[in-house]
Write a structure and sequence with these properties.
With about 90 residues, this protein is of the alpha+beta class. The chain has a single domain (about 10-80), classed as Arc Repressor Mutant, subunit A, CATH 1.10.10.1150. Helix content is about 40%, strand content about 20%. It has 3 helices and 5 strands. The protein has helices at about 35-45, 50-65, 70-80; strands spanning about 10, 15-20, 25-30, 30-35, 85. A 3-stranded antiparallel β-sheet has the order 2-3-4, covered by helices on one side. The chain is globular. The protein starts with 7 loop residues before the first strand and ends with a strand.
Length: about 90
């Protein structure tokens, strides 16, 4: 994906808040991934309305640090698993 891509969760993939564990997960047909704060913030913005560059700008402001490489690495890993579309 590049800076102008507008990623979104693949069909059958969703964010889930587990009340018992007090933890966010990314659920998909083959399993689940436990999400940290940064991963959740990225995926919440993967909605077809935010470009990668917009996600980076918003998260850089939110976390008060540069997150560009983190965003690209995370998006690449998730999309390689077929959980994120462009």
């Amino acid at each position: 994906m590049n800076a102008n891509s507008s990623p979104y969760l693949a069909c059958g993939v969703r964010l889930f808040w587990d009340e018992v564990r007090q933890q966010h997960f990314l659920l998909f047909p083959e399993g689940a991934i436990k999400l940290n704060q940064t991963a959740l913030a990225i995926l919440e913005r993967c909605d077809r309305h935010h470009t990668i560059s917009e996600i980076i700008s918003e998260l850089t402001a939110q976390f008060d640090q540069m997150v560009e490489s983190d965003v690209y690495q995370f998006v690449d890993r998730i999309s390689q698993r077929g959980l994120l579309n462009e």
